[in-house]
Amino acid sequence: MVTFAWQDFAVVGAVLAAFLLLGFSAKIRDNTAIQLIAAGRKLTLPFFVATLVTTWYGGILGIGEAFGWYGIGTWLILGLPYYVFGLCFAFFMARRVRSEEEISLPERIARVYGKPAAIVAALLVALIAAPAAHIFMLGTLVDLTTQVGLELAVIAGAVIGSLFLYRGGLLADARSNTISFVMMYVSFVLILVFAIRAYGAPPEVLAQLPADKQDLIPFGDILHALSWFFLGSWTFVDPGFHQRVASAIDAQTSKRGVIVSVGCWVVFDLLSISVAMYAYHAMQNPELGAALFPLFGNEILPTGLKGVFFAGMFGVITSAMVGYTLVCGSTLGRDIAMRLSNAPETRAVLFTRCGIAGATLIGIVLALAIPSVVFLWYDLGAIAIPGLFYPTLFAYAIRKPLSPRAALICLVAGSGSVLLWYTLLKLEALGANPPNIAPIFVGMISATAALTVSAAVERSKRQ
Hints:
Blueprint: H1 6-24, H2 33-38, H3 45-56, H4 60-70, H5 74-78, H6 80-92, H7 94-99, H8 105-113, H9 115-129, H10 132-146, H11 150-161, H12 165-199, H13 202-207, H14 222-231, H15 234-237, H16 239-246, H17 251-283, H18 292-300, H19 305-341, H20 348-369, H21 373-396, H22 404-426, H23 439-462
């Protein structure tokens, strides 16, 4: 339970009011999809970095939950892979994504591979863009500070936090992200200073952790660590990443912005994982999960400054939730519903706004059904990434794309095999001791096999 004085409520209220005010201050210039979804493709470097960093790092409570399982190995599974794939995206894909006309990943898939592949890709994109993890985290914070119950907190946070999207779209999101960007660093620097004063230098605290929490490779299981590393390729297929890169003012800004953002993530990982280490050491309760950071902040910070820390968490989580609600909404509305109904592009804004409402509803349902940030990340990513990986790379990063047939087979084989694997595990059809194979490996092997066979068949036809 978190105890707030009026000063804490005042600080949190002021920051959230500024967040909403900046969001509602934005209004799209004309009623077009490129204005609503891509801010007219006019994001300058500061806005680009602020919105990419906060949206991509919105899973802050997941760091606390992951530390309870993996200790400092959290950096290896939730930090390093995203630096590697983020830099690869910057140097090999960012300019190409910005230079193309399409403003969403499913739209690009449609242009290169056709409508069937685009629909399958859009369904997978909607799955990983669903703001469920962020809605769950926001609901957790609201419930801890108000004690209204998780269900009501989840619904209220999701609905209120995304209202300004209907008016200003990505521009509204980017403006509000500026205050979240500043607050996320201020809040974690603040609590780290208090933690060091209370418990000593980081090496001293690290030495007092249980042995399994000091291992860089979690549980000593290299294959499990590798499965999380491959999950970092989420960067290549993440629709929010693509949307923001496509919305930069020019190709140079998109590349430079991703590189700067990776540097910002490195700094914030250092802060957040250090705080998680102190929190785990101080709270002595590995079962706190996503509540680890809030309860530690409640324990160690004085009145007023506690509000600053919570305002930082509220801001970055809300930013990510809003960003992914927009992406998921545009995918459901513009890339799926509008494409299936063959509606004209002039109705894209209406379809997108309806999609935003649908994305909010889906996020709420998933958040209440799977109340774990780490499970949501791992399971949804393991399903979507294998199917999207090769078609995306070939559509952007390689001159000669796949054939429409090969792309569709990769999409279905990569993601379908993971869904089948999860189903067999759920039904216990693989026996009492099923093979210890990470689902993402099943998907990537299937997608690679599908790609290889498709290429061989097409070569034989040409001969």
